[in-house]
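stage 2 :: seqdesign
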């Protein structure tokens, strides 16, 4: 930063960090409201994790104050000005709080590592992961990555880097050759979470558990009594917290602690989608499998109108949701869809399709799936 004479002036605040130090944050809401948005896309975490199939060695690199390593245009510097008890200052580098900072930083990282992205490098903002099949290959990959960082004069935080490990933490997950699982530290946070005393605390709990919903069978169904409380006027006082809510709360904490490892998808193997149709009161769920190992779970909470669908329609809706969720894995290749026969029976028994059902039929026609009956249903 440097002293400023800019007509711009944003207030400051300080936020505590995990290591006990403080991070200075600028309240740029006024500036952000008038800023033309940079629409450069951030990668999906699931897409990044899917790239790791077949890898046995991992190195995670965390850049030292990554945003502050990117210089901004001279004409934009005055806009970053902020006020303190010690004077008026402005940033000469990218600052936290600027609406376009994440998109700008991601674009820089993608440009830097473009020759290596999806080959042996994935990046999410300042979190870099290098992955390789063998140790020898990994050392070569690391050399290339470090050469890029040196050339671009980007600096890493040594204490937060891990080199040539069989498993590492990345973006809130633990990745290894066997697959991906939840970070035990975040699992412990969920396990020790006290009963929410108000709507804000409940939303924080649901936000954390929702991040790991792909690990949880029928997450939407389990969480339904709690998500119902987030409706306007539903959580007025602790009297709104019923025994059903407490049961859902405890069950969510239990299933998060189950320590499930999800396999990485292998596009050389066939996929199997299996529906869970044993809990259609609140919604539906499904699991994506390969060779009997789960790749991901998904679930859908029924809306008010959807709860009034017939059982056949609800199961068909469950199929549609699962195929939409895993479209990137399933479209354009044969796969097996395991369920009871209600969805097929429903389609064959309806003499005239309404517009919603016609849309479902059109969507299903895009997929090459074999319907397999689940015995006993």
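stage 2 :: out
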């Amino acid at each position: 930063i440097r002293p400023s004479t800019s007509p711009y002036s944003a207030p400051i605040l300080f936020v505590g960090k995990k290591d006990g130090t403080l991070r200075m944050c600028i309240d740029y809401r006024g500036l952000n409201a008038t800023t033309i948005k940079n629409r450069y896309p951030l990668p999906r975490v699931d897409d990044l994790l899917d790239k790791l199939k077949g890898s046995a060695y991992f190195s995670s690199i965390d850049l030292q104050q990554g945003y502050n390593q990117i210089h901004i245009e001279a004409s934009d510097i005055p806009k970053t000005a902020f006020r303190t008890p010690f004077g008026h200052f402005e940033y000469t580098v990218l600052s936290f709080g600027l609406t376009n900072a994440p998109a700008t930083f991601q674009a820089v990282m993608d440009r830097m590592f473009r020759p290596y992205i999806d080959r042996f490098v994935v990046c999410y903002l300042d979190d870099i992961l290098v992955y390789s099949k063998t140790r020898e290959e990994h050392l070569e990959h690391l050399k290339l990555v470090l050469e890029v960082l040196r050339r671009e004069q980007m600096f890493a935080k040594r204490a937060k880097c891990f080199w040539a490990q069989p498993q590492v933490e990345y973006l809130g997950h633990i990745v290894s050759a066997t697959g991906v699982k939840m970070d035990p530290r975040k699992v412990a946070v969920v396990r020790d979470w006290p009963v929410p005393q108000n709507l804000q605390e409940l939303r924080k709990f649901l936000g954390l558990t929702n991040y790991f919903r792909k690990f949880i069978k029928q997450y939407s169904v389990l969480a339904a009594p709690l998500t119902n409380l987030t409706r306007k006027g539903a959580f007025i006082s602790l009297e709104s917290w019923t025994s059903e809510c407490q049961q859902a709360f405890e069950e969510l904490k239990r299933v998060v602690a189950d320590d499930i490892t999800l396999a990485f998808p292998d596009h050389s193997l066939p996929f199997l989608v299996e529906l869970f149709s044993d809990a259609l009161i609140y919604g539906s769920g499904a699991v994506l499998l390969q060779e009997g190992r789960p790749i991901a779970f998904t679930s859908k909470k029924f809306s008010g109108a959807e709860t009034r669908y017939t059982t056949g329609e609800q199961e068909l809706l469950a199929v549609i949701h699962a195929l939409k969720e895993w479209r990137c894995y399933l479209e354009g290749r044969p796969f097996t869809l395991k369920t009871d026969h209600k969805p097929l029976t429903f389609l064959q028994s309806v003499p005239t399709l309404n517009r919603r059902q016609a849309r479902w039929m059109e969507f299903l026609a895009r997929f090459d799936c074999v319907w397999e009956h689940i015995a006993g249903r």
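stage 3 :: structure notes
- The first strand starts at residue 2 and ends at 3.
- The CA atoms of residues 190 and 208 lie 8 Å apart.
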